[in-house]
Amino acid sequence: MNDTKDRLRRVLVESLRLDLAPQAVPDTGLREAVGIDSVMGLEFLIWVENEFGIQIQDEDLSVELVDSLDTLAAYVDERAAQTAAARD
């Protein structure tokens, strides 16, 4: 999951054009720490979908998903595993 979190940090910085090193992105409290609003959150999640080759389900969209790298990394890993299993 650490690799996933590292990739998520990089995607967050790139997608939102943050003047911040990826390593400086905290694990939790992202909305407050980097000022993510709802539009920025959706843009970030679109980048996440493209980076990991997954589809985030509409019913899974939540504030918690974009506020915690731990939560998002677990979700991404689960979706990636499901996507890989569906291809097999």
TrEMBL record:
InterPro entries (alphabetical): ACP-like_sf, PP-bd_ACP
Family annotation (Gene3D superfamilies): ACP-like
Organism superkingdom: Bacteria
Residue stretches in coiled coil: none
Domain Carrier positions: 2-80
Protein name: Carrier domain-containing protein
Organism per entry: Streptomyces mordarskii
Lineage: Bacteria, Bacillati, Actinomycetota, Actinomycetes, Kitasatosporales
